[in-house]
Amino acid sequence: MAGKVHLEISGPIATIINDNPEKHNAFDDVMDAQLFDLLKQLASNSEIRAIIWKGTGESWSSGRDVGSIGVKKTELTHHQLMTRGIRGIQQIWQIQAPIICAIQGWAIGGSFQRALLCDIRIAAENAKFILPEISHGVIPDTGGASVLFQIAGHGLVSDMILTGRRLSAQEALQHGIVSRVVPREELDATAQAMAEKIADSPAFTIKMARQVLSQLSQPEQAAAMENELIYQTMVNKSEDFAEFRAAKTEQREPNYKRS
Questions:
Q1: What's the pLDDT tens digit per position in 30-72?
Q2: Could you tell me if residue 143 is inside a domain?
Q3: pLDDT at 188
Q4: Strand, helix or coil at 219?
Q5: Mean pLDDT throughout 254-259?
Q6: Residue among 112, 87, 148 at smallest CA distance from 25
Q7: Which candidate among 8, 88, 112, 208 keeps its CA 20 to 30 Å from the CA of 29?
Q8: Domain assignment present for 174
Q9: b/e map of 108-140 (b: 16 or more CB within 10 Å)?
Q10: Does the predicted model carry a pTM greater than 0.85?
């Protein structure tokens, strides 16, 4: 197994732990399946009042483990694989407890987008955020673009997606992507204190407050994810993507059709 995603529960607080530190917690298919199973468990556990999502080692998650792509054969089509991934992460919306992402080091690509779907993000001073999908010939497809648009507006999300701009923790704070930046050694304690504050609050009040917020944001996010599902499938079947892959394999400059 290339890595694991763990769940620890202590009283009313649950902690999801990305645990593939040798690869900066990059996700493979096994870790995806484990994460989706844990989210399902949390959605059915009404005793959980707050959730922390953190990573071991130097990074929260460096995105997709590109070395695992194509290793395990599957009969599912690209569209079906994407649908499985979208439906899996959308289980976050069925969880009653708020999720706090405590991010250190890299938060890249789809993993960064998963963090954006959560309630609160706090960052260590060394955190870095990037959406590099275009450099891999594809588009972001986990709903994060929609959340970034809601948080920071058209200019920043276009810059990040189209140019691969990297954000520091302080820049992410300035744009509202994270709500707090703390020294790395204080990250876990800060997340724990926040979770305890939430867990100590009236449960029904927290639930209703989150319901108000979700009704403001989730319809647009869900619609964006459905569009991403369609357009990413189109990209996967396009001549330009085939040329991108061929040029990379042959170590030459691509010749795109610009269609």
A1: 999 999 999 999 999 999 999 999 999 999 999 998 765 444 5
A2: yes
A3: 98
A4: helix
A5: 82
A6: 112
A7: 8
A8: yes
A9: bbbbbbbbbbbbbbbbbebbbbbbbbeebbbbb
A10: yes
pLDDT at 154: 96
DSSP tally for the chain: helices H, then strands E: 9, 9
205: left (phi over 0), alpha (psi -120 to 50) or beta: alpha
d(CA 34, CA 10): 20
Query: Number of structural domains, the chain?
Result: 1
Length of the chain: 259
Q: Closest by alpha carbon to 50, among 19, 2, 10?
A: 10
> What is the domain-level CATH number for residue 197?
3.90.226.10
Bridge-based pairing of strands 167-168 and 128-130 is antiparallel
Q: Which domain holds residue 90?
A: 4-203
